[in-house]
C-alpha cells in the first residue's frame, strides 16, 4: 500500500517514510483549507484532516496522511502545536497530536499580524529554512527533538491506532 502525504516539506515526508519503511511514500501539495498559520488546536487538527482526506482520494488502495503545525494559547502563552491525520483506503480517519513547546513572548505580536512561524523562526535563529530542517521544536529544545522526529512520533500514534482499531 502506498502512503500519500499532503506536503512536500521533507520533515513531514521523511517522518512518514521512517515509520513505514517498507511502503512507497510520496509527498504532494494539497491546500490545508485553513489559515496558513493555524491559531488553535482545532484549526491545526482541521488542516491535518483536510490534507489527509484529499491525499486519500488521489489513488485507490492508498492511505492519506496530513501533518499540520500551528500555534495555540494555553492560558495567556502561545505554544507550538502539531497534529496529524491518517485516512485509510476504506475512509476511516485516525487523528493524533504531537509535542508542544512554548514560544517566546515576543513572537506573539508578529504571529497575530499574520506572519508565519516559519518566517519568524528563520529571523529569530538567523538561519534559512528552519521549518524544513530542525523546526521551531529543534531550536527550542537545543536540537534534542527535531521537527521530523516529532512528526515521526505523530505518525507512530496514527499507525498504532490503525493497528489497534482495525481488528476490533
Ligand atoms: O509545506 P507545508 O506542509 O505547509 O509545511 P509548513 O512548513 O508550512 O508547515 P505547516 O503549514 O504545517 O505549519 C504552519 C506554519 O507554521 C510554521 N511552523 C510550524 N511548525 C514549525 C516549526 O517546528 N518550525 C518552524 N516553523 C514551523 C510553518 O513554517 C508554517 O508557517
Ligand atoms: Mg504551510
TrEMBL record:
Catalytic activity, EC: 3.6.1.73
Q: Which GO terms describe its biological process?
A: nucleotide metabolic process
Non-canonical purine NTP phosphatase/PRRC1 domain mapped to chain residues: 6-156
Record keywords: Magnesium included?
yes
What protein name does the entry list?
Answer: inosine/xanthosine triphosphatase
EC class, as a word, reads hydrolase
Keyword annotations from UniProtKB, A to Z? Hydrolase, Magnesium, Manganese, Metal-binding, Nucleotide metabolism, Nucleotide-binding
Provide the species name. Answer: Ornithinibacillus hominis
Q: Which Gene3D superfamilies match?
A: 3.90.950.10
Identify one Pfam family in the record. Answer: NTPase_I-T
> Which Gene Ontology MF annotations are present?
ITPase activity; metal ion binding; nucleotide binding
PANTHER family this protein is in? Answer: NON-CANONICAL PURINE NTP PHOSPHATASE_PRRC1 DOMAIN-CONTAINING PROTEIN, PTHR34699
Q: Which catalysed reactions does the entry list for this protein?
A: ITP + H2O = IDP + phosphate + H(+); XTP + H2O = XDP + phosphate + H(+)
Q: What is the lineage of its organism?
A: Bacteria, Bacillati, Bacillota, Bacilli, Bacillales
Q: Which InterPro entries match?
A: ITPase-like_fam, NTPase/PRRC1, YjjX_NTPase
- Necessary cofactors: Mn(2+); Mg(2+)
